[in-house]
Amino acid sequence: YASDIYSYLRVRERRRMEYRGQSPQLHCRRDLVRFIGEMCDKMHLCVAVHHLATHLLDFFMDEHDIELHQLEMLSLACLVVAAKAEGVDPLIPSNGEIVRLMHNAFTSTHLACMEMSVLVFFDWEVHHPTIATFLDFFALLAMFPSDMARCRDSPAQLLNLESSLKNYLSYFLDTALKDYSFIKMPASMVAAACVACSRMCLHLQPLWSPMLENVSKYKLEQLTPCIGRLLT
């Protein structure tokens, strides 16, 4: 079933709308991504929600000229839509609670209208695969049998390696989210490159495996430009 799900996600990935990077508010993106992350922390929402909310924000902004004072409200609307799409509704505060968190900068009605605008723009198809979605698949294969064999006499060393690998994967995932140049790359490719970069930083060889190539459908040489960008 995992291979069927992955194939379906790749099909969805190829069907996404074109990103042009033409938003007049593109210079605000880094601050908005950070803002969404802070709100995710306050609401105890997962990384997948952060990435999907940012994805929705990126493509909505790309096709609209949004007044600066509405950008945070738009970000929150994308966050609410993403949380519902990821199935974590119980963790989402009501619109009234969100408005209070924002010190009444807008009304519940305005937030609901913005949420509807996002849904209509995407024709209600909002559960798009992101870098975080694909990394969930690849992370399970990021440690090779040869890595574990080297640590077989030291459980502590193995635990340390697993922890370090997890931290690097998280670091590169966050790096890719903050840099809008990765939006034009396939999310699956960026996720695969996150694995290769993490192994490179830990001096683990080989960087790529036949299993990862088979699952991801990427050869290491196809990832080279993306790896270079992540390491820049």
Apparent shape? elongated
- Any low-confidence stretches, pLDDT <50, length ≥5? none
**Average pLDDT metric:** 93
What is the helix/strand order?
A: HHHHHHHHHHHH
Radius of gyration: 19 Å
Count the E strands: 0
Q: Helicity range of the residues?
A: 55-70%
The SS-based structural class is mainly alpha
Question: How big a fraction of the residues is strand?
Answer: under 5%
Biggest sheet architecture: none
CATH class of the largest domain: Mainly Alpha
What is the CATH superfamily label of the largest domain?
Cyclin-like
**What's the helix count?**
12
Quickly give the CATH architecture of the largest domain: Orthogonal Bundle
Separation of termini?
36 Å
GO cellular component, one term: cyclin-dependent protein kinase holoenzyme complex
GO molecular function: cyclin-dependent protein serine/threonine kinase regulator activity
Domain Cyclin C-terminal: 129-232
Family: Belongs to the cyclin family.
